[in-house]
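User: Hello, can you help with two protein structures?

Assistant: Certainly.
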Amino acid sequence: MVKQADQFDWVSAYLDTHGLLTPWRRISAVFIAAFAADPLIMLWSPVGPQHPVTRAVTMVASGLGILGAALRFKRWPTRRQSNAWLLIAIGAIAAALLSLSDPYVGLMGCTTFAILGGYIAYFHPAGYVRANLAVAAACVAVLSYRLVAATGDVALTAGSLIVVVGLNIGVPFGMQSLVQTLRTDLQTSDRDPLTGLHNRRSFNNSAYELVRVHRGTPGAHLVVLVIDLDEFKRLNDTQGHAAGDQALVAVAAALRHSCRATAVIGRAGGEEFVVADVDTAPEPTAMADRICHAIAEIPLAITASIGASSAPLSDAAAPSTDVIDDLIRTSDAAMYEAKRAGGNQVRHYRE
């Protein structure tokens, strides 16, 4: 599995924009609670933990799982919370399985790591998948040794290993391949074919990801700029559509050069562009002026009217597409104010 950035935020944003995040949250909470309750049930089984210490370990592990399920049922976690949860889950699963008195039951229970590995591969990078696999391998090795020592049945152990190892490798690899394919398709289908910038849907998804990553950050503001080219219709009419396309490509290049690497840049349609970024300044004067000047310097006699607005993220209770839509609307109003004032200038929205 190749090394990649943590995809938790963009996958969560994708699920949310398609109305799937709440069902995912509730279903995953139910499954977590069910798997966490299983070791508790085993306390009443002859093959379950028998020693007071292992019984205590089992109760703690199950308690952590049930607590995690309750928190998830209430609210979808942040990326950091999910990272912390899965590390706790890996340790709790290992502790519960090694506490069982029957090594065969414990060995087959290692398939639980495969289920967790599928979740990790879907939402997190390969490093966490490898960590889960390493702990699973250690548990499998210990329990296999115990099984052979207790029963002498090498064939049973070998057959069990085929199932457990196959699932622990196959499920995460398959899930990660699915996510990589999904990401590639989204990147190619959500791009404007002329400029290579985000189209409107892709812009909203990526801007939503910015909100998720930076929500609760002290002093952080989500900044949105709406950029409309002045006299673009005249350029098309006098010099032809080829010149218009050349201008759009040049503007896209100017935006990439003028914005930070963290900025999300999209073409909203026609001669209108939109930029989103996170800044500590509530009024992005420097960025907006830099873009305005860069477009004016393009040797095609075009300028831009730019509208800007922002919203604080430090007190955001939860990420929402509403804040993005609201900022686009207010920036659009400010852009028309700049255009009415003669164009080639920036206006900040003020209520």
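That covers the first. Now for the second protein you mentioned:
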Amino acid sequence: MFLKTKWFVLASVLVSLNACTLPETASRPQLPQTQPTPTTQTNQPSKARATKGEQYTATVLKIADGDTITVQDAHGAQHKIRLAYIDAPETKQNYGMDSQAALRERLERQPVQVQVEDIDRYKREVAIITHNGEDVNYQQIALGNAWHYTEYAKSQVAADFARYQAAMQAAQAKRLGLWQFARPQAPWDYRKQQRNRDKQQAGE
């Protein structure tokens, strides 16, 4: 009888211990590991604008037309430049693509000297471009690839104004470039015509 009682007590103790055992902790679901968002490299070139009177060396990257280029300076910044004192045919005009091609052949990927004469309303540098010691603006006129833009040449040095005028007259006499056409339309007249057409289409 004593042994039975002893075993009963021992069994009760074991049952109590089992009842007090902490339940197994439920395993937590594994959250998916989020990968850090990679930083997108835009590789956008920095843009810069020099000030009036500034001079610097650059490499020509792009020729937009016969009087507008994009260059990269020694610091890697890009500048959009309008060639000073000249006006080339727009690319949709007669000889516009030819003027662009002539400038591209001369300047693309070439080192140039930039002399900033002004900043225009489009925030472009208006500049004289020199390549291999030659005034590229003047050459565009002399080869019949552009007009002397007298309306915007009032600030031009008098001697240079006369030189540019003489170059245009010589190109006209030789019927070079755009002067091979009987009555070439000046680009400023073409732009005005396009603006008026746009206004008419807009119902103004």
